[in-house]
What we know:
The protein has 18 helices and 14 strands. The protein is α/β, with parallel strands linked by helices and 474 residues long. The strands form three sheets. Strands 4, 5, 6, 7, 8, 9, 10, 11 and 12 form a nine-stranded parallel sheet that branches. A three-stranded antiparallel sheet has the order 1-2-3, covered by helices on one side. It has a two-stranded antiparallel ribbon with strand order 13-14. Strand 2 and strand 3 form a beta hairpin. Helix 10 (263-275) runs parallel beside helix 11 (300-315), helix 16 packs across helix 17 and helix 17 packs antiparallel against helix 18 (466-473).
Amino acid sequence: MAHEEPEPVFDEDALEWSSEDDSLAQAVDEQALEDEAAAAWLAAEEEYVPLDGGVGYLAVGGTEAGSIVSALPAGSPPVVRDAAPAIVDRDAALTGDRPIYLVHRGTRHANFLPIVMGDLHYKKGRHLAIGTIAALPSAKPQKLASFFDQTSVAALRIADPQCYRLDDKVLRLPPSPIGKRAFEYAPYLASPENSDWVLQVVEAQRSVGANLLLTPGRALNPDEPQKSLDAVFQEADRVLALTEMGERVALNITIPSRWLAVGALRDRLLDEVLDQDQFDVLYVRVQWAQTKAFAPTDDADLLMGIRLLANLCQDEGRALLLPQTGLTGWFALAHGAVGYGIGVSGTEQCFAEHVFRRGRQGQQQAQRYFERQMLHTIDSASHDVVAQATGYIACDCTYCSSLFTTQPWSHALSALHHIFSMGALTARIQEDAGRGGRHGAVRRIVRTARRWSNELPLGPGDVPKHLSVWDQAL
């Protein structure tokens, strides 16, 4: 398996930034065909299970999978499964009693996400709280509102304004980070100088049904630290002044990794966070350099910064959400973060610094597979080798049975497997927290993954390099 992962013929993450580029039409058409095949399999059988407390039924099969109904539809088959846990509400979720698993509604395979979220809630919902994030610039408000309606099991519904797209002088973003459709879907991005701009950002979130409001979250400039901190907190205080009865606000911060990796900047940020005690929920997006798609960070300085931020929030009773961190966010649960975000694309797994990629003619999208036992994503050919190793435990999720018995490779089913598997890993932290809390649970999972992976015949491109750094950090 001595090979490097091929670059995609198109930038997969570009789909998250702009949907009007004609060069992406072929990729989108292929996805539509894939989605049709996956939908035919997922909708094979309709089934409902009762929720604890007799408050309704959760659909776990068929076209309505993931939704909740108050009574069984006429003609539904008899209920034969155990009850599903009751849905926790927003405020109960934000206590952090269970880790919060935030699933991004991206531009790919979004129709299937309510299904996998319902599946996760039924099987793992006693040990985690599920939430969802929808980017306001990514789709029409009506579509986002409909998505929130479909995600019945989500305790948190977050409509991310993504105002950091305005800060291409601070962050390393793709060219033209605000396309024509983004301006159409999120018109507030065109008017940041308006006196009512903060109100526009808040109303856009309310209009789609968000139940946790975010402050605008402009990027903090490490070259003008105090000036940018003051501006971000000023806007955040304006949001607080606009809140109505029953609403909750999260302090939304976007930072380049220097803010957490460099001691002086990190100390200033932590001091400011400590002073802003009017906010009991933090939503922190960190941009860092990434060498390979879907790979978590192994930067020891950055990991130390994430650890210190999480420790501070835990000590001060603040709920820290890391919305765009994937497996790195899972690791941060060991240090006091209460939740993290993940999605189908590389963009939703990591807010990476943009690097231009030149695709080669005829090249196809990589066939990726998340190996829960390795805490790592590899390509399908490498999976075939790893699956023959002594001690390998095959995934028993709903999606893998079809993924490995049908051709061609289904990116949709592979993505759903990834989302479900990470949710199961998140629940496992809570299940195993009796010895040493969440820190002890993460340490045991990481150490076991490292020891097992060290025995595998992996090529340089497949080695989970982060595990040794994580093991030492724990």
